[in-house]
Amino acid sequence: MLRRVGEPGLREEVVGLLQRLIRIDTTNPPGNETAAAQLLREYLESNGVECELYARVPERANLVARLRGSGDGPTLVLLSHTDVVLATEPNWEAPPFGGELRSGEVWGRGALDMKGQVAASAVAIASLAREGFRPRGDLLFVATADEEQDDGYGLRWLVETHPDAVRCDLAINEGQGDRVELGGRPFYLCSTAEKMTAPFRLRVHGRSGHASMPSIADNALVNAARLVERVAAYRPEPESPPEVDAFFRAVTGEAPDAADALARARELDPLAVLLVEPLLAPTFSPTIISASEKRNVIPALCDVEVDCRLPPGRTPADVEEAIRAALGNDVSYDLEWIEARGGTRSSFESPLWEAVESFVAEIEPAARAVPVCSPGFTDSHWLREAYGATAYGFFPARAMPAEVAASLIHSANERVPVEDLELGLAFLRHAAREVCG
Hints:
- The chain is of the alpha+beta class.
- The chain folds into two domains: 10-182 and 343-436, 3-Layer(aba) Sandwich (Aminopeptidase), CATH 3.40.630.10; 196-341, 2-Layer Sandwich (Alpha-Beta Plaits), CATH 3.30.70.
- It has helices at 10-22, 34-45, 115-130, 155-161, 220-233, 242-252, 258-268, 270-276, 316-327, 351-363, 380-387, 402-408, 418-436, and strands at residues 50-55, 61-67, 76-81, 101-102, 105-107, 139-144, 170-173, 179-182, 185-194, 196-197, 200-205, 209-210, 283-290, 297-298, 301-310, 333-337, 341-342, 368-374, 390-393, 415-417.
- A hairpin with a 2-residue loop joins strand 8 and strand 9.
- The chain has 13 helices and 20 strands.
- It has a six-stranded mixed β-sheet, with helices on both faces.
- Helix 1 crosses helix 13 and helix 10 packs across helix 13 (418-436).
């Protein structure tokens, strides 16, 4: 049984604010998030919420809004970002920055990622302020710039240069919340961990020569092709992280061994395979290759970039030896790690998890909340690393099927059902009261 949730009047309020946010073009690059931050500040201050803008450069502001607590409870952050990715105009059935309301859905770039949650978070803290809610610990709403590119204007910069502004114990961010059915039972997914992005570059060596006489050269591009095939074929030994164990216990009642986890997911549901498979080991995807700049010159060097994702707690040093073994020693190459970000987890035994569970039980008694690890990463890792915060990705949605929403994020015709906006808003208000009340 699905139960209707929401407060009278807030539905129109969150829809209207989302429409105004979508109509501000915050495509990153260049971002221009200050316009969205100012809109949110005006809205929140008119509802009695204390606000402050923090900006590395004037046009890329971050907003921190705060309901001050009595000091004897945890600080909870409702975290979001106001920048969006590029929208290609010809592919859209509605103007991507129009914010149109069509058949109960708000259309536009950022409706799902993630101005819908921005609007719901703002309305949550504003409505609680109007009602006289006074938390034990501070309740914060943080709308950051630059999440999509992470060039140092958003949460990373805030944590480094204004650490007290966003210091927290608990955080609710984007990343999950979808209602799915597995084995004929309903579940709401909550992201409690994220893999590390750790891309590396292979610089493959050869010997240059004229392309009309290939036998006199050693083509680095051809050599690189052999390594690309080996990287793509490499399958590390499976591991079973705590999120996968918890997922199976919630869905099936028992956790299989790591070697059997993928087969058990296949027996359960194709969706379970999509959720489990990327989490059982590091993943390696060659994505970029560059060699000669002239068609008639055989390249002496070829660069291959590999998108590598590591389970939480693992580092590049942990996997480099295995990667080199998979590549073999018959091709000359250098391996360079480009960066290493994310790879953090939060316990799913916390007051915030209890709030997630109690909300799911309220809206759909037959359903359960289930923790998952995201194969990608969000800004949550900055809060986990800086403050040891418990951070979850959870904005519940049930009107739009999960596979449809996934196909619309960063794509044309992005839109969010008003019913899901209302549901997410209700959860944020519930979590604030449960955790900080």
